[in-house]
Write a structure and sequence with these properties.
alpha+beta; eight-stranded antiparallel beta barrel; six-stranded antiparallel beta sheet; 24% helix
């Protein structure tokens, strides 16, 4: 037995603090104020597992800042308010703010045709403006779905340049600009490129000089190099068995798996920041240090469609209410990161929750945090809606399904699916990179896949009734055509 006191001390230091204390896990050390009521909401994330960082500002004062769980499980590094996270789509408000700042400098017209700034953008037969990019009304397809159809996984290298190259190959958009709303990350990436062209700076440089620098957000940047070393960054995780795809669903075992983050999607995502830095940004909604009061009021003004309908989306911010109280904010989801920012402007309450594990539910936790402070002002929680009843679906024989067999290619994505009936009599869509997807009939020439990237498949016929292709439609991509090959 080794009785070296130095070894014994090292062993003790490596043990979890909760084990040494003989009690339930506690939040990680924080120099700022903590609220035990908030600690209780995140107690299940404490200890040797991925977790979360949380910041709460009320009336201009920080009332809670804490870290729970582990930032890097390989090395047992705890999460603190200084831990850096990729906050995913919360990033969009910074892209919108950058566009407004550039407009205020006289270097961007938000209502001009963006093809005047980006010559590589295809002519889709209609004018697309930067304001439409901001409000998700441009009709531009969302790249996570289109790239998945092309066989690109979320843990692959997905660079800003690759996203733009995909966009420049597109042959159609989802709908006439400003006629509808459809969330599009691609639109924000195009917005970032417009800002680069018009500012003469990289998007990272522009946001650093105009936003992060003035606010002294020293641990904040838009990632434009997935190989860059970022001190203090939290790794991304999913429960065991969910490391492929979206990191969502039901876990198949105990423990966690790492989900590599190799994305540099400027303006739509890829903002790296800490809770301590983001507290400075949340305070900016009160002080208007960056942007000024008029610009901050613009940030929360919803978009309006051509038909006069008002959206629930403003400038990188969702506008709504929770239990009768007005709110604005945004959520984020990428690989294992799950994030949420919610502000109750009338109560001057701001909440940020950054998680590094995919089953964290930051939005639900942020609402519970809000209830701690202003629950007495809230209306009763609405009842959950009744589930929709199942509808009858057509039952096609294997022989009937064989009519749909063949190879189908999208020239826009340079991607091919091979459809064939398997030994169980099911129509299966195969792709050399994607998992096979079983297509289940839902109507005449209509199917749904059991993989998320084939949500609705509709086969197209010519005048003689021959199948000539199929289209894929989802919430953010519509009627993307795959042509049947000879």
């Amino acid at each position: 037995m080794n009785r070296n006191p130095l070894v014994a001390t090292a062993v003790l230091a490596a043990l979890p603090a909760a084990l040494l204390a003989g009690c339930a896990p506690q939040p990680n050390a924080s120099d700022g104020p903590t609220d035990p009521r908030i600690d209780a909401i995140f107690a299940d994330l404490a200890g040797d597992r991925p977790g979360a960082a949380v910041g709460v500002v009320m009336g201009g004062e920080v009332v809670h800042r804490g870290g729970y769980g582990t930032a890097h499980m390989d090395h047992g590094i705890p999460i603190t308010p200084g831990t850096v996270f990729d906050i995913a789509s919360i990033s969009k408000q910074f892209g919108a703010m950058a566009a407004l700042l550039l407009e205020s400098e006289g270097n961007l017209d938000l209502d001009a045709d963006v093809r005047g700034y980006i010559a590589e953008l295809p002519d889709f037969g209609a004018t697309i403006t930067a304001r439409q990019l901001i409000h998700h009304t441009s009709g531009i397809r969302d790249w996570p779905h289109t790239m998945a159809l092309g066989g690109i996984g979320f843990t692959d290298v997905i660079s800003f340049e690759k996203i733009l190259r995909m966009l420049y190959r597109q042959e159609a958009i989802n709908f006439p600009p400003n006629s509808e709303y459809a969330y599009s990350n691609t639109a924000y990436n195009l917005l970032a490129r417009v800002i680069e062209v018009q500012s003469g700076m990289t998007f990272r440089e522009y946001t650093e000089s105009r936003i992060f620098g003035p606010l002294e957000m020293t641990r904040t940047h838009f990632s434009d190099d997935y190989l860059e070393i970022v001190p203090g960054r939290a790794e991304s995780y999913a429960p065991m068995g969910l490391a492929e795809g979206l990191g969502d669903g039901e876990a198949t075992g105990d423990g966690f798996q790492r989900l590599p983050n190799q994305l540099t999607a400027l303006a739509s995502s890829s903002l790296h920041t800490s809770i301590d830095d983001f507290i400075r940004w949340m305070r900016n909604y009160e002080t208007a240090q960056v942007g000024g009061e008029e610009m901050l009021r613009t940030m929360v003004q919803p978009g309006v469609l051509t038909n006069g309908d008002t959206l629930d989306y403003a400038y990188g911010l969702s506008v709504g209410d929770y239990r009768g109280l007005p709110t604005f904010g945004h959520g984020g989801s990428w690989v294992g990161y799950r994030t949420n920012f919610t502000r109750f402007p009338e109560q001057n309450l701001s909440i940020a929750v950054f998680c590094n594990v995919s089953d964290c539910d930051p939005a639900g936790r942020a609402r519970r945090v809000a209830e701690v402070y202003i629950g007495d002002l809230m209306a009763e929680a609405p009842e959950a809606p009744e589930p929709e009843p199942d509808t009858d679906v057509p039952n096609l024989t294997a022989e009937q399904l064989r009519e749909y067999e063949g190879s189908y290619r999208s020239p826009e994505l340079d991607s091919t699916y091979d459809l064939e009936v398997d030994a169980e009599g099911r129509l299966v869509a195969g792709h050399w990179r994607n998992d096979p997807s079983v297509l289940t009939p839902t109507g005449e020439d209509e199917f749904t896949g059991d993989q998320w990237f084939l949500p609705a498949v509709r086969f197209v016929r010519d005048g003689a009734g021959r199948i000539t292709g199929f289209t894929v439609t989802g919430v953010r991509v519509r009627d993307l055509i795959f042509e049947r090959q000879p």
